[in-house]
Write a structure and sequence with these properties.
Number of helices of chain B: 7
Strand order of the largest sheet of chain C: 1-3-2
Chains: A alpha+beta (about 750), B alpha/beta (about 230), C mainly alpha (about 170)
Distance between the termini of chain B: 20 Å
Strand content of chain B: 25-35%
CATH architecture of the largest domain in chain C: Orthogonal Bundle
Structural class of chain C: mainly alpha
Largest interface: A-B, 33 and 40 residues
Oligomer: heterotrimer
Radius of gyration of chain B: 17 Å
Number of strands of chain C: 3
Bound molecules: adenosine-5'-diphosphate, magnesium ion
């Protein structure tokens, strides 16, 4: 035991306080591990952050289950848009003094009072937002505290509903409903999420592993010297372990500090509609423990793994022989196992959770295959290269002696690339499945859709007509059509010929005609002339109310495509004469805004505000998305941001290791410079040393990514779609990264080749 | 001869196709300084490495104090290097991260001697090699001659029975070389340690009691003329 | 250095006339100092007297230049002894050593043995000097070092020659 401690002490001594070079090495590996740890801690906080948010969201939700002895609170909610922002407005009316209140509110507000979230208070206080203040002129009686507002940037407002509140759609007997078990995620989405996590975290671990192996050659020599003076292989292992442990532990500390620091700054950051409270960023405890344990363990394991070549060589001191050749078998085995898992996917049915996990495991193995195969490939490729200019020759010879370091570093970047390529392809393919509207819809700031309940439909139309900024108004009514009960339905919009003429530019409209958009073929959907269909209304409930039977007319006209872009009908469009008499459907009012009036939309919204929750409006530029589609978009954005971030991390690790490389090879570089090799040639040789592995990395990563995507999309029988320009861009980014790193190392190369670098032991 | 300390018999070792040692034999007696001479590339260093147990010969036997090295475990051989052998190479054997005194103390520390004790013993030895003044510097901060004398101190610190010196003066000028050799030989004589001295410099070999010549991986048995 | 031994060595490769001996000697060893006839005949007569060579026949016509000489058994022994006895280590003895090496090569003996024996002798001398130097004062050291450096030069030459023996052998044989 004492002997062990003694060995560990020697290792610690070697790691710290060994002059400038060992300090530099220590700092580099500490920073490397620190960054990785911070990222891992952040990643392990995602769950708690989402939980805390859900907690607050659920605590604010009204519970409509009647409770004896409780005078309920009437509750209505609307979303009021202001520019790009959405304000959640909640109207409350208490039946009595004991009526429940949402959390964070002292007394239920009157009609002229409101509680606002901090972000909304700030927004209202901004003199630029007078229109918003006009919309909500109520007196602010209180600002909600962080503990009740979902996220720092949430815009939330509670105000009194007044007597009208009795018609509010909801009656709350309490606030806060039990945290529902979240619906199991769509397995497709889960797979995407897992895949993304894997693609982003694998490089972090690679980065971590290579950080603890910084200055491998130097370390090997040092340990050889220890072997020479008689440490046995066990001792050397312990010493090396202690040495890396010091860096790993210091990295843990630094990572923790970086994490805390980053956490404090989270307050001011809103990324893609996501903002979090620093207080929420608390890692899941067992994940944090896992990180705390995994980092040192991984560090020690990689160090031990790296030692397998040096352990028997006390002669490393005097001889730099060619390293042992790498073996292919186990490397291929890892990838093969991944492929098998993907093809066999646990023998489970498609689209179950286990399916997702087993596929994610397979994908992980394939992605891991990139950094695992790369060193082998680099070694075997460079061993065949010959000739070329002197910078090329220097680089090749150097790589022949030690390609491991460069290959490992590039492995991280290549993994990001492979992951990103695979993700992009899978995303693109799934985008079809989720049929998200293309992002490049014509944004229209000049038209607006207003939805109003049937009881206020006329009033709404009148208000909008008179509002400042309105050019023209037309009204349509929405229904649904069905062939028989229980079947899915098609949307049916009813508009008079005036509207059809003005909105859809069908000048020869005659009452009694039916239209369809260009993307729909009514016959194919079953709308055959003479067929009887049911016109129904989903009045909030899930069971449609049958309003009338309708015999489908003999002919359907086509709407000009250009106009659809502005007011999509989403189904059939009929003039009233084509249909039997119908009770009032759900009215939709189309408003044409006056481009000459600044903030015309806000004026219209302000005017509509008098109808409060009974009417709401939306500018016709934002497609309305389903929950799954939104989740999908969120995941996609998260993944893209993650890829960029990880690529940056890869860049940092490239830089760190390139600098390390220069530092380690100062003497030979200085000798070359002293013997008249121009610095340019040395710089080019360094560039080659990064460029060759990167080229090979790309050569591995792109097929790996596309292969992975193929395997995955094969599972769901989707047709693989590869975003080749995207692949090209990411490849170019990886290459640019290499170039950039080489450029950044130039000043260090200059200082290394100054002649005083020749003096060393 | 009864006081043979270390012997290598018919050692063979090749790296790839070319044999580095092709049937080399030599013995080292207690307290004896044996020079190993021969042209560069003849296999001198390889012979030394085989004798010291840091390279395993493909055939032939190395026997130290009656025990065959190849029969020992790595741990035992390491212990041997730590306790019974000392090494002085041309350069590179000092650990650049450690100060000179820590370098000298290293073999003791590896054997589990406490830091204080180890370093004071180390300082004593550095005194004998006239480098105690630079004990707290690092290898990169001292001259080649000083570095070699520190290496000698480290080789001697555990009181070894054999010191393996491979071109110990190879990187030094005559004066520094002389000084290193004088100190190495005189301290070894005092402690009774044997030295296997690989060199191609006759003046360095002249510090030996006897020489062995290696040519093309073979030792030449030289008949001493009466 | 001994011309007698050199002539004996040359005779070992076969009986020769006096003139012939001079020619071969000059070719191999007399680059800057060819032998005088007188020296050849006086040396040969000394060798005759000591029984190391004998006359192996006279060609018709008489005159000393017509006599052929051959080495005797005693002569062979004498050459062998001479070859393996190292020259006493002193400076500027390459010419003697060179003669020995060439003769060893010509007579099929081991030139390496000749060089090895010489190296042993040189090193022995160097060891003595080194020991003296260790115990001596600065003046001793300087004097010893001077000798040591010269001896070292010899030894380096020995090493070099050893390394080139096979080339030299070819040249001598031709
Ligand atoms: N690790 C090695 N790998 C390949 N060849 C080696 C290795 N070590 C020694 N050799 C070869 O073995 C021969 C003898 O080397 P060495 O013992 O170092 O000779 P010396 O010390 O006499 O100069 C040389 O030809 C050398 O190239
Ligand atoms: Mg050598």
């Amino acid at each position: 035991m004492r002997a062990w401690l003694n060995d560990l002490a020697i290792g610690v001594r070697l790691a710290v306080g060994g002059g400038r070079t060992s300090l530099a090495r220590f700092v580099l590996s500490t920073v490397g591990v620190g960054i990785a740890v911070a990222v891992l801690l952040l990643a392990s906080s995602v769950g708690p952050v989402l939980d805390a948010r859900d907690q607050r969201t659920y605590a604010n939700l009204p519970d409509a289950t009647p409770a004896a002895g409780v005078a309920p609170t009437h509750y209505a909610r609307e979303t009021s848009e202001f520019g790009e922002k959405r304000v959640n407005v909640i109207y409350l009316l208490g039946e009595g003094p004991t009526s429940p209140k949402p959390p964070g509110i002292a007394t239920l507000p009157g009609e002229d009072e409101m509680y606002v979230s901090p972000a909304l208070a700030a927004l209202l206080g901004d003199p630029a937002n007078t229109l918003l203040r006009e919309r909500f002129p109520q007196r602010i009686v209180g600002t909600l505290s962080d503990t009740v507002v979902e996220k720092p940037t949430a815009l939330l407002l509670y105000t009194g509903a007044g007597p009208q509140g009795r018609e509010a759609p909801l009656t709350a007997y309490a606030f806060g409903i039990p945290h529902l078990e979240p619906e199991p995620m769509d397995p497709g989405l889960l797979l995407l999420l897992l895949l993304g996590t894997v693609a982003l975290l694998v490089p972090v671990f690679i980065f971590l592993a290579s950080s603890t192996r910084i200055a491998g050659a130097e370390r090997d020599r040092r340990l050889s010297a220890l072997r020479l003076v008689g440490s046995d292989s066990g001792q050397v292992r312990r010493i090396a372990a202690a040495e890396t442990l010091v860096g790993a532990l210091a990295g843990l500390l630094l990572g923790g500090a970086l994490f805390l620091l980053g956490r404090e700054m989270a307050d001011d950051v809103e990324l893609m509609n996501v903002s979090v409270y620093p207080a929420d960023i608390v890692p899941t405890w067992w994940l944090a423990v896992l990180v705390l344990l995994a980092v040192p363990v991984l560090a020690v394991l990689t160090a031990q793994f790296a030692l397998r070549r040096t352990i028997i060589e006390p002669l490393g001191v005097v001889r730099h022989s060619k390293p042992v050749r790498r073996r292919l078998v186990w490397r291929v085995a890892v990838v093969a196992l991944g492929v098998v898992l993907l093809v066999w996917h646990g023998g489970v049915d498609a689209n179950s959770q286990l399916w997702s996990y087993s596929i994610a495991t397979g994908a992980t193995l394939i992605l891991l295959g990139v950094p695992i195969l790369l060193p082998y490939l680099v070694e075997h490729t460079v061993s065949r290269l010959r000739g070329g200019p002197s910078s090329w020759q220097l680089a090749i010879r150097r790589l022949q002696l030690d390609s491991g370091t460069s290959a490992r570093v590039v492995g991280g970047v290549a993994t990001v690339l492979a992951g990103a390529v695979a993700l992009q392809a899978v995303l693109l393919t799934q985008a079809g499945a989720f049929s998200v509207p293309d992002d490049h819809r014509v944004p229209s700031d000049v038209t607006m859709t207003v939805f109003a309940g049937p009881e206020v439909a006329e009033e709404a139309e009148r208000i909008v007509k008179n509002a400042e900024g309105t050019l023209a108004v037309s009204s349509v009514q929405s229904f649904s059509v069905q062939f028989s009960a229980g079947e899915s339905s098609q949307s049916l919009i009813v508009a008079d010929c005036d509207t059809v003429r003005s909105v859809y530019a069908v000048d020869d409209c005659v009452d009694g005609q039916v239209f369809s958009p260009h993307y729909m073929t009514p016959e194919a959907d079953g709308f055959l002339p003479g067929r009887t269909v049911r016109v129904v209304d989903y009045d909030g409930g899930s069971e449609p109310k049958v309003l009338a039977e309708w015999t489908y007319p003999a002919s359907t006209r086509r709407l000009p495509p250009a106009t659809i872009d502005r007011f999509d009908v989403g189904g059939l469009l009929a003039t009233p004469g084509a249909l039997p008499d119908l009770p009032g459907g759900y009215p939709t009012i189309r408003v044409q805004l006056d481009p000459a009036v600044p903030q015309a939309a806000e004026h219209v919204r302000n005017a509509l505000q008098s109808l409060r929750w009974r009417a709401w409006s939306s500018l016709d530029n934002a497609p309305v998305l389903s929950q799954s589609q939104r989740e999908y978009l969120t995941i996609r954005r998260g993944l893209l941001v993650g890829s960029v971030f990880t690529l940056l991390l890869g860049g940092i690790s490239l830089l760190v290791l390139a600098l390390e490389h220069i530092r380690e090879r100062r003497r030979p570089l200085a000798i070359l410079a002293a013997s008249g090799v121009p610095t340019g040639a040395l710089a080019r040789s360094l560039l080659w040393q990064i460029a060759i592995p990167i080229a090979l990395g790309v050569a591995v990563a792109v097929p790996a990514g596309i292969g992975l995507a193929t395997l995955i999309t094969n599972l769901s029988a989707d047709l693989l779609r590869v975003d080749w320009p995207g692949v090209a861009i990411m490849t170019a980014a990886a290459a640019a990264l290499g170039l950039l790193v080489s450029l950044l190392t130039l000043p260090f190369l200059r200082s290394a080749t100054r002649l005083d670098a020749l003096r060393t032991e | 001869m009864t006081d043979v300390l270390l012997s290598g018999t018919d050692l063979r070792k090749s790296f790839g196709a070319t044999p580095a040692l092709d049937g080399a034999s030599m013995t080292v007696r207690r307290g004896e300084i044996v020079a190993v001479m021969g042209p560069s590339g003849s296999g001198k260093s390889t012979l030394l490495h085989c004798l010291a147990g840091i390279v395993a010969p493909e055939s032939g036997a190395v026997v130290f104090q009656g025990r065959e090295l190849s029969a020992m475990s790595d741990r035992e051989r390491s212990a041997l290097r730590r306790g019974e052998f000392g090494f002085v190479f041309q350069f590179g054997q000092l650990v650049p991260e450690l100060s000179l005194v820590e370098n000298v103390a290293l073999p003791l520390r590896l054997s589990g001697v406490r830091r204080k004790t180890a370093e004071s013993t180390a300082r004593e030895w550095m005194g004998r090699l006239e480098v105690d003044g630079i004990a707290d510097k690092r290898p990169g901060e001292v001259s080649g001659g000083q570095g070699q004398r520190v290496a000698v101190a480290r080789a001697l610190v555990t009181g070894p029975k054999v010191i393996f010196a491979d071109e110990p003066t190879g990187a030094l000028d005559s004066l520094n070389g002389e000084q290193v050799m004088r100190l190495l030989v005189s301290t070894a004589k005092e402690t009774g340690a044997s030295i296997v001295l690989v060199t191609h410099e006759p003046r360095v070999a002249a510090y030996s009691d006897r020489e062995v010549v290696v040519r093309d991986g073979k030792t030449r048995q030289v008949e001493l003329v009466p | 250095m001994s011309i007698g031994h050199a002539l004996l060595g040359l005779l070992e490769t076969g009986p020769r006339h006096g003139y012939d001996l001079k020619r071969v000697y000059d070719e191999h060893f007399g680059h800057d100092r060819p032998l005088a006839y007188g020296q050849v005949y006086s040396t040969l007569s000394r060798l005759l007297r000591n029984g190391l060579v004998e006359e192996s026949g006279v060609e018709p016509g008489g005159g000393p230049e017509r006599k052929r000489y051959a080495i005797t058994d005693a002569g062979v022994t004498d050459v062998t002894e001479w070859l393996v006895t190292p020259e006493s280590p002193q400076i500027y003895l390459q010419s003697a050593l060179y003669t020995k090496v060439v003769l060893a090569l010509m007579s099929g003996r081991s030139a390496e043995d000749v060089l090895d024996a010489q190296r042993v002798a040189h090193l022995k001398a160097m060891r003595e000097l080194t020991a003296r130097k260790r115990d001596g004062d600065l003046a001793d050291q300087l004097i010893c070092d001077h000798a040591l450096f010269h001896l070292e030069a010899d030894l380096r030459w020995l090493e070099l020659t050893t390394a080139r023996l096979s080339d030299l052998g070819k040249q001598v044989a031709s």
